[in-house]
């Protein structure tokens, strides 16, 4: 993300509050004891939780 | 305050049942049903306002996932969200638990220009946005001009050049209104680490693909080609990002970068990390040993690098929290974070 969202930037539009990673399903296929991931996905999902400054008019 | 969430999700080969995407690879109806349900669960769990998807072969297969997520979400809302008559209905937790339908969300799909018939399918990317889009999202895959990267050898002689005319997967660029801000979002899926192996004319397969007659030299050359392609694609993306940054627009780049955030291909996308103080550094046109940049020039350089620099969400989060381990892929026992924002 550009510096518009960097916490050290005094002129920022906002910043990230939290970052989630869903990766419990990730196994490297070499461990037979590990549960599914052949059909699921071999990638984790990442979610950035953002907060913008200023008045809310979106939701 | 406006809060929103933005996510990246490589779904791994999403296509309808009984469709051969790569040679000998397809889902039975039962496998497809399981996969769709799993993806819907993940979409519901993510509950992100904006999702950048990779490895989508058909728009319909993704719409089916989103529809299933919405149906599950509606069911969950009925069970988990109290109606207004309840005195505790305004507790903050219920805002987090509620699923907001994607029924009115925008969905932009970019199919892959390299897509072929059964067994030769190539995946595209998509962006789902609860805020919709401003203007039509743009697709970048076929380069208007071929990219020629010239090399010169260390003795100064011509080192030839490397050329790409098309990206391995499309880049999707969308302007998304969030509150009063418009953010330019790029969704990308760069070339993987899978080696590009030599295939002599008429050969049924690349000789280095034969693992019984294992050819480590040939396979290393395959990795070199894949890495070079990934870096060239990263540069094309960087050039598009710079146009937005130079116009003053806030930018978020998400997707499957297919390498970690300190890999060179990823650094090409994010730009350079500035040096601590350029007044300590000898200037480019030095005429004597102690000829350094001035303090004023240091300020200029710092600003020029900083204004076009991107920051990894993962790194920012590691700094902010006490968590120091994030991974999004595992291969051969190596856990890496190759999906980035």
The DSSP helix count of chain B reads: 7
Query: Segments of chain B where pLDDT lies below 50 for 5+ residues?
Result: none
What overall geometry of chain B do the principal axes of the alpha carbons give?
globular
Strand order of the largest sheet of chain A: 1-2
What spatial order of strands do you see in the largest sheet of chain B?
Answer: 5-6-7-8-11
Question: Which structural class is indicated by helix and strand composition of chain A?
Answer: mainly beta
The total count of strands of chain B amounts to: 11
Count of alpha/pi helices of chain A: 0
The percent range for strand residues of chain A is 25-35%
Largest interface: A-B, 43 and 62 residues
How would you spell out the order of helices and strands of chain B? Answer: EHEHHEEEEEHEHHHEEE
Helix-residue proportion of chain B: 25-40%
Outline the structure in words.
The complex is a heterodimer of chains A (59) and B (341). Chain A is mainly beta. In chain A, 0% of the residues lie in helices and 29% in strands. Chain A is built from no helices and 2 strands. The radius of gyration of chain A is 18 Å and the shape is rod-shaped. The model of chain A has no long low-confidence stretch (mean pLDDT 84). Chain B contains 7 helices and 11 strands. Chain B has helices spanning 29-46, 59-80, 92-97, 216-246, 264-270, 295-306, 313-320, and strands spanning 2-14, 50-56, 106-110, 124-129, 134-152, 158-178, 181-189, 251-256, 329-331, 334-336, 339-340. In chain B, helix 4 (216-246) packs parallel to helix 5. Chain B is globular, with a radius of gyration of 23 Å. The two termini of chain B are 22 Å apart. The model of chain B has no long low-confidence stretch (mean pLDDT 95). The interface between A and B is large, with 43 and 62 residues. Strand 2 of chain A pairs antiparallel with strand 1 of chain B.
């Amino acid at each position: 993300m550009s510096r518009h969202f960097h916490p050290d930037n005094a002129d920022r539009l906002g910043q990230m509050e939290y970052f989630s990673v869903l990766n419990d399903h990730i196994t490297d296929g070499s461990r037979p004891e590990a549960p599914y991931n052949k059909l699921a996905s071999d990638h984790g999902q990442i979610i950035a939780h953002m907060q913008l400054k200023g008045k809310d008019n979106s939701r | 305050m406006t809060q929103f969430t933005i996510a990246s999700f490589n779904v791994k080969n999403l296509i309808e049942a009984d469709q051969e995407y790569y040679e000998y690879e397809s889902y039975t109806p039962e496998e497809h049903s399981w996969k769709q349900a799993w993806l819907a669960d993940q979409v519901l769990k993510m509950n992100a306002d904006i999702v950048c998807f990779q490895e989508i072969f058909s728009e319909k297969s993704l719409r089916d996932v989103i529809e299933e997520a919405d149906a599950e979400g509606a069911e969950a809302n009925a069970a988990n969200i109290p109606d207004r008559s309840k005195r505790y209905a305004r507790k903050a937790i219920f805002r987090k638990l509620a699923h907001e339908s994607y029924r009115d969300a925008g969905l932009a799909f970019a199919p892959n220009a390299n897509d072929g018939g059964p067994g030769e399918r190539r995946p595209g990317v998509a962006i789902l946005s609860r805020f919709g889009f401003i203007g039509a999202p743009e697709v970048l895959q076929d380069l208007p001009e071929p990219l020629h990267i010239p090399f010169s050898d260390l003795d100064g002689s011509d080192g030839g050049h490397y050329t790409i005319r098309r990206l391995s997967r499309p880049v999707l660029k969308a302007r998304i209104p969030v509150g009063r801000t418009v953010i330019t979002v790029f969704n990308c899926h760069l070339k993987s680490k899978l080696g590009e192996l030599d295939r002599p004319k008429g050969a049924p397969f690349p000789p280095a693909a034969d693992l019984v007659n294992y050819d480590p030299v040939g396979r290393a050359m395959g990795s070199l080609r894949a890495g070079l392609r990934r870096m060239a694609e990263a540069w094309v993306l960087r050039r598009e990002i710079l146009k937005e940054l130079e116009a003053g627009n806030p930018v978020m780049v998400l997707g499957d970068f297919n390498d970690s955030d300190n890999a060179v291909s990823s650094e090409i996308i994010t730009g350079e990390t500035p040096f601590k103080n350029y007044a300590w550094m000898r200037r480019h046109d030095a005429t004597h040993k102690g000829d350094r940049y001035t303090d004023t020039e240091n300020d200029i350089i710092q600003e020029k690098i900083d204004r076009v620099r991107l920051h990894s969400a993962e790194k920012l989060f590691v700094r902010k929290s006490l968590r120091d381990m994030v991974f999004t892929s595992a291969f051969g026992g190596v856990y890496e974070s190759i999906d980035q924002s």
